[in-house]
Amino acid sequence: MILYSYGPQEGSTKTINAKCSHCGAETMAITMFQKVFSLFGLPIIPYSKSYSLHCLNCNSNYDPNTYNIDIKSLKMNYTWKAFIGWVIIIAFFSWLQVDSDKNVQKIAAYAQSPQIEDVVVYKSKDNSKTPYIFFKIIKIDSEKVYLLASKYAYNKLHKAYLEAEDAVQSDFDTEVVEITKDGLKNLQVEKWIRKTQAKVK
Ligand SMILES: [Zn+2]
């Protein structure tokens, strides 16, 4: 995928009164081409304009300068096509935000009613280099939740999440750790993986 590119795209067109020296028609069209900086193929910043003049009757092309056309007075502004990338970029980040909000809501709901076999990825405050740890819930009673922590801690959330999703018994410590239900709610949980059928609405 092309990271960024510069290039012309066709902008707006206006008809003007000018006489074609080839066929004698009195009306010609001037087209503005806008050079645009694009990121991932999405136009976001226009940075220069060029113009071409052509006859609507015989299609002859001319350099507008030779016709002494006052291009500035035509006020040919950059068109929406030069900025269309912003629409897609903003939509993408809005979607990310909605997705993130949903994740937060899901975690809050799961933390209210933890289930055995849930796997939870959280961010520890103790280890700044490898703060991401996951654990599996193995037992729940009226006050406490019992869990097995992952053998390893991770420096990136996505790494911990990938491991947690496919975790097998040997990925966990054998020592059982207990935490109160309130303590569980207060952990900085990043992902809550529930594979059982009974999902919280
Ligand atoms: Zn012509």
Short note summarizing the structure:
The chain has 201 residues and is α+β, with helices and mostly antiparallel strands. It contains four helices and nine strands, in the order E-E-E-E-H-H-E-E-E-H-E-H-E.
Key descriptive features of the protein:
201 residues, alpha+beta, SH3 type barrels, 2 domains, five-stranded antiparallel sheet, four-stranded antiparallel sheet, 4 helices, 39% strand, rod-shaped, binds zinc ion
Explain this structure.
The chain has 201 residues and is of the alpha+beta class. The chain has helices spanning 71-74, 84-112, 157-165, 181-186; strands at residues 4-17, 27-39, 42-55, 61-62, 119-123, 132-140, 144-150, 172-180, 189-193. The protein is 24% helix and 39% strand. Strands 8-7-6-5-9 form a five-stranded antiparallel β-sheet. The longest helix is centred in the middle third of the chain and has 29 residues, at 84-112. The chain binds zinc ion. Zinc ion is lined by residues 20, 22-23, 25, 55, 57-58, 60. Residues 20, 22-23, 25, 55, 57-58, 60 line the site of zinc ion (ZN).
